[in-house]
Amino acid sequence: MPQDGAGASCHGDTFAGTRQLRASPASEKNNLAKALHDYKSNLRVGGGVADAEVLSLSEEEITALAHYLAHL
């Protein structure tokens, strides 16, 4: 992901999102990984910077990013 804060407009400065109720970290990690895979395969389109960024992620990067974001 870009270091310039491009995702902050949708996900907040810490990428924690804006929802008040969050799933468990394990569940959140699985949900995030699925969403990233769906973006990468064009099953999900966000219309923002995330689409282009996700296309360049490897499987290992998707797993690591989902884990990181789930534990914020």
Describe the structure.
The protein has helices at residues 8-11, 25-40, 49-55, 59-70. By secondary structure, it is an all-alpha fold. Helix 2 runs antiparallel to helix 4 (59-70). The two termini are 15 Å apart. The model has no long low-confidence stretch (mean pLDDT 78).
Please render the helix and strand layout as text.
Blueprint (H helix, E strand, L loop, with lengths): L7 H4 L13 H16 L8 H7 L3 H12 L2
Helix pairs in contact: 2-3, 2-4
What's this, in brief?
The protein has 72 residues and is mainly α. Helices cover 54% and strands 0% of the residues.
Notable traits:
72 residues, mainly alpha, 4 helices, 0% strand, globular
- The helical percent reads 40-55%
Low-confidence stretches: none
Order of helices and strands: HHHH
Strand content: under 5%
Rg measurement, Å: 12 Å
Q: Structural class, please?
A: mainly alpha
Give the end-to-end Cα distance, rounded to a whole number of Å.
15 Å
The main pleated sheet reads as:
none
- What is the count of DSSP helices, taking H or I runs of 4+ residues? 4
Tally of strands: 0
Q: How does the overall form come out from the CA principal axes? A: globular
